[in-house]
């Protein structure tokens, strides 16, 4: 199954899949619910998936009912932002390929920290980063062109392909926070969680290996690191 293969690849980039048995888990940006269903099969106490996209949450619920009806009492999907979520004390919080799209990450991270138990862990993987070669996820066919062009020119080009009711005024309007590598690193280092594991360009593709070599040159690092995978822990010392 393709989704399961992608999920296993996600956890392999995080130094291995955790043991979910008996744990309370939150998935931030659950999309269509495949990751939640995967974790739900691992005998957790509870899995909650949240997303601000109503269509995604509705589809997640339908996916669960159709393919995993036995997980309905274990897995739950909610249309909400993290700051509005009532539940706390999660053993594990997961976010897969979402952080590059979240506007206001500086406000999200304190909410994550609050909702983790002491010794609870955050499993985080995201990319491509905005300043990397395909940071606009295919909107520009030429590598790095989205950062070479002015933002006004880029927005004008994007709007030409959209109808009048869906014109954008900024890159944020299409779901990219435009964070730099340094902004992500500052956020992770100063959020109050301990970094247990971190990997850059976590991909076995030859391009990633080549880019990793270029990223060793300090002035090129911003443009040749395209993803970040890390495991973070709420340390008792931080309480």
Quick synopsis:
This protein has 239 residues and is of the alpha/beta class. The protein has helices at 2-12, 34-40, 54-67, 105-115, 145-148, 151-160, 181-189, 206-214, 221-224; strands at residues 24-28, 46-51, 75-79, 90-96, 116-126, 194-200, 228-233.
User: Which segments are poorly predicted (pLDDT under 50) over 5 or more consecutive residues?
Assistant: none
Give the beta-strand count: 7
Q: Biggest sheet, open or closed, and with what strands and sense?
A: 7 strands, mixed
The number of domains? 1
CA radius of gyration is: 18 Å
The CATH H-level superfamily is Vaccinia Virus protein VP39
Gross geometry: globular
So, CATH architecture? 3-Layer(aba) Sandwich
What is this structure's SSE topology?
Blueprint: H1 2-12, E1 24-28, H2 34-40, E2 46-51, H3 54-67, E3 75-79, E4 90-96, H4 105-115, E5 116-126, H5 145-148, H6 151-160, H7 181-189, E6 194-200, H8 206-214, H9 221-224, E7 228-233
Parallel strand pairs: 1-2, 1-4, 2-3, 4-5
Antiparallel strand pairs: 5-7, 6-7
